[in-house]
Structure formats: C-alpha cells, structure tokens
Amino acid sequence: MEKFTRLEGLAAPLDRANVDTDAIIPKQFLKSIKRTGFGPNLFDEWRYLDHGEPGMDNSRRPLNPNFVLNQPRYRGAQVLLARENFGCGSSREHAPWALADYGFRAIIAPGYADIFYNNCFKNGLLPIVLEPALVDRLFGETEATPGYRLVVDLEGQTVSTPAGEVFRFAVDEFRKHCLLNGLDDIGLTLRHVDKIRAYEERRRREAPWLFA
Amino acid sequence: MSAQTLYDKLWQQHVVHEEAGGTTLLYIDRHLVHEVTSPQAFEGLRLAGRKPWRTASVLAVADHNVPTKDRQDGIKDPVSRLQVETLDRNCADFAINEFRMGDARQGIVHVVGPEQGATLPGMTVVCGDSHTSTHGAFAALAFGIGTSEVEHVLATQCLMTKKSKVMQIMVDGRLGKGVTAKDVALAVIGEIGTAGGTGYAVEFAGSAIRSLSMEGRMTLCNMAIEAGARAGMVAVDETTLSYVRGRPFAPRGELWDRAAAYWRTLVSDPGARFDRVVRLDAARIAPLVTWGTSPEMVAAVDGRVPDPAREPDPVKRDGMERALAYMGLAPNTPIAEIAIDKVFIGSCTNSRIEDLRAAAQVVRGRRLAANVRLAMVVPGSGLVKRQAEQEGLDQVFIAAGFEWREPGCSMCLAMNADRLEPGERCASTSNRNFEGRQGPGGRTHLVSPAMAAAAAVAGRFVDVRRI
Ligand code: SF4
C-alpha cells in the first residue's frame, strides 16, 4: 500500500450530504475485475452529461459544466471536502479506488459511513473527521479563494490552512501506523498465525459444528 | 461476570488477538462471496502466492449480474459474463463451494446463506456486501466488508477490526394490520437517520421484534446498514431455532443439541448496558413510503411529501430540495396521489417466501393498473421460487399481469438488464432509493411487499390497510 505522511494539496468542495457510494462510482463500472482505472468514472452521473458505460472513451464524453470537479480551478485537487455521512450505502471498495485513482489523497468531512471509512485506509486514502462548523468554514474559504491549498500532516494529525490556522484531527493509532508505513494488513496478521491456529483448536472442541 | 449484551458475547467469542488501542483480530466463521467484490481479492491472493485459509468456511454464489430471464441463453453482456465466469474460475481453482447459475440453490447471497443454514447463530459472518447485516437476524455477528478485507479474510480467516458501540432499538407493542418488518425498518431509519447508527452495532429487541418471523427479522437487520449500522442483531429464541433446524448446513443429532444449548445463551443479559437506547411504539407505525433519495426520507402512506421550506437546517433543506427535484415531486403532495410506472418485488430485503405470500395475497384476483408498464417479481433464490410455485403464487402474479423471473439482485441495483428508464417511477421492495440506483434517472420509492403489490394494482400508492 502507498504510504501517507504529509500532503500539500488543492482542495475541492463537494457540497452535498449523504453522498453514497453509488454516486461515487455507479454500478455499471463495478463489473470490472481490476482494481485500477476507476478514476475517469468517479462521480460519473454528475460529472458527464451522457450516460457512462464501461469501455467508453471518457475523454470524448460531454462534461457537465455545473459539476464542481469540472471547474478548471479544481483541476488536480488532492483534498476533497465533503459533508455528513460521506460514502454511505454499498460496501464497494471501488469507491475509494475511484477517488484515489482520480488523484484524491485525503477527504475532510464531518463524518463517514463505517465501511467506506475502513476501506479508505486500505488504499492509502486518509479520511479526516473535523467538526461540522470547521468543515463549513473550510467550504467557505475554498469556494472564496482560488488555488486554496491545505496541508495534511498525518504524523502530527493536523490540517493547516493557507492562513496558517492549524486544526488537529483524531485517528486510530494502529491505522495511522499502517498508513504512515504503508503496511499490508495481511502481512501483519500473518505474524499471528500461531494464535489463529490455537484459537481454531479451541473452537473445534467448544463448537465443533462450526467446522463440520 | 457483569451483564453482557448479545454483541459483547459474540465479540468476545471471536477475539484471536488484541493490539494496544483495541484493534482486534476477529475470527470469521462464515465467509460469503459474490462475483462483484471478490475478483480483485482472489487476484491479490494469487499475486502474493497465498491460498484461502479454510475453504470450507466459504460459500460463493453469483447474484448481482445474473439475468432474470432467458437463462438458457447465458449472460449477454460480455462484461457481466466475464465477472461471473471469473467467480466460477476462482472457486474452481481454490476448491470453494459455489452455487452456480444453473443450480436450484443459486440466489441472492443474503437469502441463500440463511436458507442453507450456512448462517448459524453465534457465528461471525462476513461478505463483501453491505447488506451482510441481514444475517444478524440469527444472533450472528454479521457485517459487510470491502474487497481488501475479503482478501484478508480469505488469507487469514480473520478480520482486523475494532469493537463498535452498541445500540438497542426497542420496538414494543403490536404492529397494526398490514404493517410489516419493512415498515419497522423504515420507521427506525426515519427516526435515527441514515447516519444514526454509524459506529454502532444495533440489537433489535422488544415484543414487536420477538413476534416477527425469521423472514421479518432478516428484513429488519438487512436495513440496519441503511441506518448507518454495520451490524443488526436479534437474540436467539424458539423462532430462530425452528428456522435453522434441518437446513442443509445446520448441525444434526447430538451436535444439534449441543449447538442449540449454546445458542440459547445468545441473548443480552438482563441489566446489560447499551451505549444508546431508542424506543419505538409498534402500534404507531403506519405503512411507509420513501419520497426522496435517501431511505430516511420517509412518510406514512396517508401523509404527504414534506415541504423543504419548513426545514430550518440549510444542509438538510438543500438535500430535500435536490431530492424532490430528482424525484419530480412537489412539496405537500399526498403520498396516495403519486402514480407509478413500474413495480419491483425482490432484493435481499424482501424476496423471501413470506414476502411473496404477502404480495400475492394483495394481488390475488386483481389486475395491474393500466398505467403500470412493468411489474416484476424476482424470488430471492431458486428454492424460494420453487416453493412459491408449489404454492401457486407464480400463477397469482402472472394472472395479474406480473412477470415471474429467475432469482438474483435484478433491479435492486440494475447491474443486469433489469432497470428503470430515466424519469420512471417505481414502487420497490428493495433497500436503496439513491439517485440512479435502479437505473440512471430512475425514481425509487421503497415500500413493503404488500404495499408494492397494492400500488401495482392501483397504479399509485394506496394504504394497504384499506384494501
Ligand atoms: S439484492 Fe440489492 S442490496 Fe441485496 S445484495 Fe443484491 S444488490 Fe445488494
């Protein structure tokens, strides 16, 4: 997994609550058996004026000029500002794959759906939770200031604004450690092979019907 | 030991290892797999030269992409076909038990697991699918995971996770005539909101829950994720045991007795502490209809579409206005004046035999309204389909003008050929009314099977209590 340490990136505001994973990456793109290539179809239904299907040449499709990420000022954005309950709905990991493939490395929102939040960490994408009022302020400043860049420092757990304001965010220690070092969960778990086997031994005796 | 919640008991039984800070290796008893969220996980296994830890714990079935008619012709869309074939190949390569498309046991993974007894009380159950919460109806700890976690569970039989907070949702009293588990689920989501359960595992309790059948409990737990909760649960009682008994994967004989004795302990102890308790009065729940693009946007069938002008919170108001624009609805429209174009009875929420019976009872002797272009019934599994046919339910639907289809996810998410056209309005027994969920531009109203059937006959929403 790609490490995440410190990021200075352009912020882009997606001003809607309850953005679901169906909106982040519509189901027709879930037919892919690959992990990559979802970026051009991120927010497909909002981003393009036509209906997208897998295999289309996305560079020739008509863009929706009203969709925020299509505004030239947000080109190359790496920090996504979002609202409450971002990533709700389906468990599809294609959602963080698409966000990361598009170029986002961090999201800032007042809250996320659990599975989506979890999936982000597996893909080097940092979901940051800040107070709703703070997020609201960042939305205001981003919209008012072209070229508005935020600095995200995972080690220090801070988000800094261009004006030099610094906000602290909370993150689980273990997840932070994995993200900072780009550690692979499976590798970590397999250090405990003996414990897994011992657990299975005990359960075979206690609850044999589970192993029938 | 102090009083424990059901969740505490299930959690504790499955802890393999705990890191400082609470990150836990949790042992997984049952891993359900479908074609959409597994290919990249199998690919990851191969790339790392790993093998599944315990193949007997895995049960696979293709459901999202499968066609619901003309199955003998195979899957026409080559991309869908490749995904299903990839599952077939992965299962063959790794010796995983799979119910293939031609198998009578094939169906929606969350219908198939319980039906086979592959979901048992006390188990940890995972699947790369958010509606895995369904299986919590059996006092199992069941939740959806992402593809990286699918790979992790395949490789290690464990999941790296943290304990949730626990919410008890108490529904006491008697449900009115025509009010079902689906209405309870929608009422709960309307009450706590789609993010209300975030960070929680939910236990549904109270007399109204105890009086639900297993099908009803599954419907309720299925929609726990729509309230933001990864897991929903119901304690074990005789209803649970009698459903499980005799199923193909369930223990038998002496093993059954031992298992059942343990399963009876899978209840929250008196005095167990919950992080949050929510109470609902069953008698006050009406048949419900969603009017917007989030399952929390819900109104009683005898109510009206709300007016955003009366919403003080600007983010919410904005969401309501957007939803009404998408849904093509004006504020204050009576729900009973909303006309529909299509009807979908199916999905892992409401495609079990009891759901089909409830819908058939309303439809019997009636015809589809002239304005309804398509009404389809998609059984949750091949075995549900067979059972329904033995009871003659298929004939009831067909006589009324419904299409009787093969099992699968179908128009719940429209990954196969079944979908809404832009602007079409659908009464649907599924679980998500998100923008474009049932087809780009499609408008979904979530309802119970009886309400969907009543809408099919009337051509608009009607109060199922009055027919
Ligand atoms: S029926 Fe719908 S919600 Fe259930 S698993 Fe299939 S697509 Fe998901």
Any overview of this molecule?
- Chain A is globular, with a radius of gyration of 20 Å.
- Chain A has a 7-stranded mixed β-sheet with strand order 4-3-2-1-5-6-7.
- Chain A contains 8 helices and 7 strands, in the order βααβαβαβαβββααα.
- Chain A is α/β, with parallel strands linked by helices and 212 residues long.
- Helix content of chain A is 31%, strand content 14%.
- In chain A, strand 3, helix 4 and strand 4 form a beta-alpha-beta unit.
- By secondary structure, chain B is α/β, with parallel strands linked by helices.
- In chain B, helix 3 links the parallel strand 4 and strand 5.
- Chain B has a 5-stranded parallel β-sheet, sandwiched between helices. Chain B has a 5-stranded parallel β-sheet with strand order 17-16-15-18-19. A 4-stranded parallel β-sheet of chain B has the order 11-10-9-12.
- In chain B, helix 2 crosses helix 5, helix 6 runs parallel beside helix 8 and helix 12 packs parallel to helix 15.
- In chain B, 31% of the residues lie in helices and 17% in strands.
- The chains are: A alpha/beta (212), B alpha/beta (467).
- Chains A and B meet through helix 4, helix 6, helix 7 and helix 8 of A and helix 2, helix 3, helix 5, strand 8 and helix 10 of B.
- The structure holds iron/sulfur cluster.
- Iron/sulfur cluster binds next to loops of chain B.
